[in-house]
Fold this protein.
Amino acid sequence: MQRMGMVIGVKPEMIAEYKRLHAAVWPEVLALISESNIRNYTIFLREPENLLFGYWEYHGSDFSADMAKIAASPKNQEWWSFTIPCQQPLESCKEDEWWAMMEETFHLD
């Protein structure tokens, strides 16, 4: 199992919409996340900085393949058509990142 953290901005005028969307995530999207070996997925919001922090535990053996499966899903692409306009990548993102991945620096079970 690999713990993963990531961060992205959320546009201030889109916070209510982002919350509304995530109050009722589509069942097909939830199933796809689970089928892609992601467990314990949580997104936190920090205001007034308007940052989203995502955390999940990856239980698979081929992260790239699982992420490609998620990205290729027509239902997930439709979901992203609603959520992506709410988000604002950090200026420090790598060229191929949307959410900026974070380095784990401490953990206690």
Summary: The radius of gyration is 14 Å. The helical segments are 15-22, 27-35, 63-72, 74-83. The longest strand covers residues 2-10.
